[in-house]
Each structure stands twice: as structure tokens, then as C-alpha cells.
Amino acid sequence: MRLIVLGCSGSGPGPMSPASGYLVEAGGTHLTLDLGNGTFGALQRHLDPWLLDAVAFSHLHPDHCADFTALTVFRRYHPFPAYDATQRPLPVHAPAAAPERFAAAYATSEADRAETDLCDVFTFHPLSGSAQIGDVTLRAGTVDHLVEAYGLRVEHGGRSLVYSGDTGPCTGLVELARGADVLLCEATWPHHDDAPAGVHLSGREAGEHAAAAGVSRLLITHVPAWFDGQEILAEAKEAFDGPVELVVPDGAYDI
After folding, report:
1. Rg of the Cα atoms in the chain
2. How far apart are CA 55 and CA 85, in angstroms?
3. CA-CA distance, 183 to 66, in Å (whole number)?
């Protein structure tokens, strides 16, 4: 199983990276975890989007899902007959509001909004429990954020990758990540005791969650352009004694 970083900038695209988005390759299966601003372009450097077996979304903030509209255009209007997406709708695993939210984002006007239906090229599946996608099992667990939000666990061939999505400190992430080979964890700001609850993790808190879950390796992501990733990485290393890295755009990580 391999993780490829399409974008890792927190809260929006930065000068050196798109926002959040990740490609997972496992056996013969390809799926994305989130598709934030700019990630669809990055995806095309690594995979023909037609070869995706599914897309999954941790939550519906734009920095994690805005490029779904670009994927929709690709699937609806690709000029080659071999890319007729109506013959192979793409599974979308996402929070329950995704069909309406994505239709609204894609609609050309407010009047057109109610008539926009994306089910010709996608099938929508609310995140709940587990789902089999080709060669992988996708598991979802609720985390603590400002909207309906999930951590995502991908399992294949005895290996496991857990993606935190966006979350404040919570036991849900620890339980989902229990014993995982890799935890891809957001760390949005340097640690400060007056941080608002239920929003994001600091570098130190990401390390603490990795240690509590007993994961083998921690990958730090979602650092906004206005913070120093090396400072946040140092915090995580102080709290977790296993391997820790700060991911980079187009970086590939074997699980």
C-alpha cells in the first residue's frame, strides 16, 4: 500500500502546495482521501482520474472537497467514448449531506441548484462503519470538528493507514488509529493552552494521539502556510518516540 500526497496545506492552498488531498494505492485499487483546492491537478500527475475506484471525504469544508467540482467536469464532459462515466458511476463515500452540497457547488446558478443531480456519474454512500472498495476496506470513525467529520482507516493485506481528517483532541481518533502502521495526522498550529476546542490539533497533540493509539509511524500534514512546519514537527517528535515525518506535496510513502 502506498500513500501519495496531492496536497497538504492546511485551511487552503499555500504557495507551495494544494490543500488537503491524498491518493492511496493498494493492490489494484486506487482511491482518494479528500480533494481540496488544487488537488485534482496534482492527481493527474500520478494517475488518470478515470482509474479511480472511489473517492472518500473526511468532511465537507472546501479545503478538503472543493475539487470535487473539477472531478465532476472530468467525468461528465471528457470527450473520449471510453470515458463514458454514465456506464461506470464512481462511488463517493462522504458525510450524509454530500449529494446536496456537491450539487450546490456544481450548479451554475441558484435557480439551477434544485435541478442539479450528480447521480449520473457518481453513487453516494454515507460514511458509516466499513465499506469494501476493491482490494481495500475503508473504515470511518467520528472525530471532533466544527461539522460532521470522520477519520478514515484504509486496510489492505494486513497493513493499515489512518487519516485524521480535521479534528480537535478526541478519543475517537485514538480508537480508530489503534495499532495502525501509519497515522496521517493533521497538526494545524503550534501548541497553546487556550486553543479552541473541537477544531484542530497542535503538533504536540498529534504526537500524543499517535502514542496513545500505539501506531508505528506518524506523518504530519495540514500545516497552514502561515505556520512553521518544522516547529510543529518538533512538537510531534517530543510527544511520540516513533518515526515522525512532515509530508510534502507529491511525496510518496510506503505503508
Report:
1. 17
2. 14
3. 24
pLDDT given at position 114:
59
CB-CB contact of 221 with 186 (8 Å): yes
Amino acid at 221: T
Contact at 8 Å (CB) between 38 and 54? no
Q: What is the pLDDT of residue 197?
A: 87
Distance (Å, rounded) from C-alpha 143 to C-alpha 141?
7
DSSP string for residues in 65-131: HTTHHHHHHHHHH-SSGGG-GGGSPEEEEE-TTHHHHHHHHH-SSHHHHTT---TTTEEEEE--SEE
Q: Which stretches in the chain have pLDDT values below 50?
A: none
Q: What pTM was estimated for this model as a whole?
A: 0.96
The whole-number pLDDT of residue 117 equals: 87
Q: Distances from the Cα of 171 to the Cαs of 150, 151, 159, 175, 213, in angstroms?
A: 12, 11, 22, 6, 9
Helix 203-213 to helix 229-239 angle, to the nearest 10 degrees? 30
**Chain segment 79-97, per-residue pLDDT in tens:** 999 999 999 999 999 999 9
The ranges assigned to domains in the chain are: 2-254
CATH of domain 2-254: 3.60.15.10
Handedness of CA 158, 44, 98, 66 (dihedral sign): positive
Query: Are 238 and 207 in contact, with CB atoms under 8 Å apart?
Result: yes
Please state, in angstroms and rounded to a whole number, the distance separating the CA atoms of residues 162 and 218: 10
Terminus-to-terminus CA distance in the chain, angstroms?
A: 5
